[in-house]
Design goal:
The chain has 2 domains: 38 residues, no CATH class; 80 residues, hpI Integrase, Chain A. It is built from 5 helices and 3 strands; from the N terminus they run ααααβββα. It has a 3-stranded antiparallel β-sheet with strand order 1-2-3, with no helix packed on it. Strand 2 and strand 3 form a beta hairpin. The radius of gyration is 21 Å and the shape is elongated.
Length: 146
Amino acid sequence: MREAHLNATLTGLRFFFETTLDRPETLKKVRHVYEPRKLPEILSLDEVTRLLQAAGSLKYQAALGVAYGAGLRANEVVHLKAVDIDSERMIIRVDQGKGQRDRQAMVSPTLLTILRAWWREGRKQRQLLPGGWLFPGQNPINSLFC
């Protein structure tokens, strides 16, 4: 049994004994299992290329490229605006990311090329509104996963 599954089971048992049965002493000596942190696997250039090509449209290629290439979380990607991309300094400004914190992420020249191509296509298709989302949903007023 993996550590995460075991810890989730222990949490459920703790709730059952402490809250439902009102017997907190029953699991007094039970501790969560240590779960070692492992580094994520890094994809090869060929794997990243195939992943982006499988995304379909340029909009989704750009969104997936930002998520993987700049290390942004899904919620951070869908809430990006065009003004958050600083192409001169090659950074992305993330407002109110995880933990309601602002941060900056680096952008590679290849990713910047993909973002520029998406910006041009999105403007041509009238999906990108001035000051609007970089990755809008079906209704351009809403973000992708609104």
